[in-house]
Amino acid sequence: MTTDSGLRAKARRHLGPHFTRKDVWQDAELPVFVRSEGCHLYDDQGRRFLDGLAGLFCVNIGHGRSDIVAAASKQMETLPYSTNWGAAHPPSIEAASLIAELAPGDLGVTFFVNSGSEAVETAIKFARQYHKSQGNPERTKIISRQMAYHGVTLGALSVTGLPKIRDPFLPLLPGVRHVPNTFGHTGDCGPAAELDCVRAIEQAILEEGPETVAAVFAEPVQNGRGALVPPDGYWRELRRICDRYGVLLVADEVICSFGRLGHWFGSGYFGVVPDMVTFAKGATSGYAPLGGMIAREQLVQELFDSPKGGTFTHGATWGGHPVSTAVAVANIKAMRDEDVLGNVRTLGPELRAGLEEIKNRHRVVKDVRGMGFFYAIELMADRETDRELSAEQSTEILRAVLPAAFKKTGVILRPDDRGATMIMVSPPLVADRAVLDELLAGIDVMVGDVQRSVSA
């Protein structure tokens, strides 16, 4: 068996890291996880950690589910691979049918891909080809929101509104306009149509020329800038604006779908039927790679029936892979039959209450935002004196204080610097009160360490 030092040496030399600084990748204590069960991970030293981020917002059903493993194994034995190009197979058909049952309104056709970024790429391409098939080839522009993350492929990255991850790859896809997000607006803020964050979207469409705009992209609860829950009526206004100007509305639900907010789809919770929904992560609870774009049936029919359409000119070798879609079926059915979403709706308010108690105990907590099992804790130097963190304090917290606290508490969360200094919280959706108590106890220690670091 490879020794501990051997594993890390091989990782440093041969394994390309994702979104990881060199000093972290070269650290002698680089985490190497070897086993998981329920809501916990175990490293190669036998240490136990609470997975407070559900992997990357994805292990919704929890780790170590033998039923999901069995579904994958059975599919590998039966039909390990078959394409969805000019053919179909039972697991992709069943997965697409299940998703159609759960999605809002007439969102009934799923194009499977492999990741959230590819799902967004699919929506971009569908929007462009749909408009072209309907005789509007000039409709190519996209409106999205500042600080929003929509993926890393060049098209999805163009729609992303985070300068730090866009800048190394400029220039990107032309014709993307970023408008203000909903930061600072939540709950009842008055008529949604009068809010600046809503008026900015309509204004951008008018300035670009409605006849040139293909789609508006938005997450039901925006991840970038820290779990931004929209104000009342916001999504209904997005639907009204898009309908008025013939623009397609895309709900990016890579995080928000399959229970993260306590509902199958966040857009459905907020009372609208978008033209497309993108998903990934929770569809398989991370047990296999799978993403997808769900489109309204009428739009698909119109594209395929058009003389300028006939085919959605897009696809991927692994799109709708039999094993991945079999895993999705097993995962979705288990979540449905075990009322996992009900668990989130029941315990989500308790999780929020616990986070609010931590805020009240520590003056370094500026805000707690989110819903369901998806929260952000925004940090500052001192709430009582309204003192923000300096750049040096923020760097120290994100790169030293919080990583050390994760190790000390055995609770893994995500330090986040997208627009503020934050801790992202996203436990598996099967977490019970005991797990949430463990999570909250760990967060309390972390925040206490942050407070001591800025007070020193």
TrEMBL record:
Pfam families referenced in this protein's UniProt entry, alphabetically: Aminotran_3 (PF00202)
Keyword terms of this UniProt record: Aminotransferase, Pyridoxal phosphate, Transferase
Molecular function in Gene Ontology: transaminase activity
PANTHER family reported for this sequence: AMINOTRANSFERASE (PTHR43094), AMINOTRANSFERASE CLASS-III (PTHR43094:SF1)
Family: Belongs to the class-III pyridoxal-phosphate-dependent aminotransferase family.
Name of the protein in its database record: Aspartate aminotransferase family protein
Originating species: Streptomyces cavernicola
